[in-house]
Known about the structure:
The complex is a heterodimer of chains A (225) and B (306). Chain A is α/β, with parallel strands linked by helices. Chain A is built from eight helices and seven strands. Chain B has an eight-stranded parallel β-barrel, surrounded by seven helices. Chain A binds chain B through residues 153-167, 170-171, 180, 183, 186-187, 195, 198-199, 201-204, 207, and chain B through 81-82, 86, 108-111, 113-114, 122, 124-130, 133-134, 145, 162-164, 167-169, 172, 175-176, 178-179, 182-183, 191, 238-239.
Amino acid sequence: xxxxxxxxxxxxxxxxxxxxxxxxxxxxxxxxxxxxxxxxxxxxxxxxxxxxxxxxxxxxxxxxxxxxxxxxxxxxxxxxxxxxxxxxxxxxxxxxxxxxxxxxxxxxxxxxxxxxxxxxxxxxxxxxxxxxxxxxxxxxxxxxxxxxxxxxxxxxxxxxxxxxxxxxxxxxxxxxxxxxxxxxxxxxxxxxxxxxxxxxxxxxxxxxxxxxxxxxxxxxxxxxx
Amino acid sequence: xxxxxxxxxxxxxxxxxxxxxxxxxxxxxxxxxxxxxxxxxxxxxxxxxxxxxxxxxxxxxxxxxxxxxxxxxxxxxxxxxxxxxxxxxxxxxxxxxxxxxxxxxxxxxxxxxxxxxxxxxxxxxxxxxxxxxxxxxxxxxxxxxxxxxxxxxxxxxxxxxxxxxxxxxxxxxxxxxxxxxxxxxxxxxxxxxxxxxxxxxxxxxxxxxxxxxxxxxxxxxxxxxxxxxxxxxxxxxxxxxxxxxxxxxxxxxxxxxxxxxxxxxxxxxxxxxxxxxxxxxxxxxxxxxxxxxxxxxxxxxxxxxx
Lengths: 225, 306
């Protein structure tokens, strides 16, 4: 799922400084699961904003709405009346949700309350790690189901580099240990009896399927109307 | 001959090759290259010119190599995958060959985290194995990576690569060397060797696979001036193995500089005994002037006529 993290309150306050009535719009999708932007998180953020502004003697009115998913127009069209009653919408959705709102409401200011981080996996409760970079040409078949594009700091296809040590990446630090994904790939392929996968020289990647060839699109003809 | 470089000729003749290293300045000071070049002139078969090592901005490796050529040296211009995409890399390979650079060393490069611009975006369009294959394709098949032909004046360069026998996973390091040999590396320089036993163990595997016949292995050696330097390498440099006995020996030394030279000379004689080692790569980091002293004492001077 998409994992996001809330921006610092001061930054958010600076975004909404000039407004008297705003909507804090949550999202019932991924950001609810990763605890950063669901109905509850939106409510807490709205309260924090109101309290700060109250303290400053510059109160702000907040309207709360949390559609099922902010990234689909069916869900964000419904609260149109409420949206049009505010000066700005502060979105606690991922970057897709913020942009869906901006696209659907061309006359409304839409502001991001989150930093969208990655497509990730909850390794344990309250802790997520990046797993997929959406490169558009999946290599997991021969890497034992571990992605070097998303998880290697050098995106190597013929890794590991010389900086792999004790199972950790050379970019690790004491307070941020990062596993060397190539060590993990090596170990898993050894376990599966498929180490031969690593003997082949893997050719350069065609990065056109990634973000390098401009905006990417997916079309599913059968579903088009 | 692939390049006709001195290094290639020495190795082809079965000689014990010697390369050294020269770091470009963090400025546009051409004289600093010329001054350092003096220490190497006539003493080594090739001089590595590093490419923004540890991700600290320095004079371009190719520009510095060109200055080294003008001093009569044969540089081994390094190129890392961190800062350029395949377009810039091929362009620079053509440019390097046009400037008379005959040896190129291709590597992944230290992550930008270690340098003075950790905010920078990295490139890694290609990895080091892919870069080796690309340069070999340019030289031997006269083709760009795209498949377009290089109509004439293909870059005739001797292709080097690196391997770190001390990084993990240890058992994979030989397989990775095999990939680099298959991709087209002509010679390999290893990471600094302090742990001679581990290096020997690795070389046994290399010889068992017959890789020493496909690619010339130059053992990387670094003379150190203090126990502190060894501590630093042990604790701060990723993928380094420094035995405690060596640190103790340096700590106990009355004249640590002299002891550092002694250790390096001993190391040279030890690696010469190891089957499959075709030469040494001396990396006297920040202590370039000591290279001729060490080589003289190790009996590696004068260099053979080729």
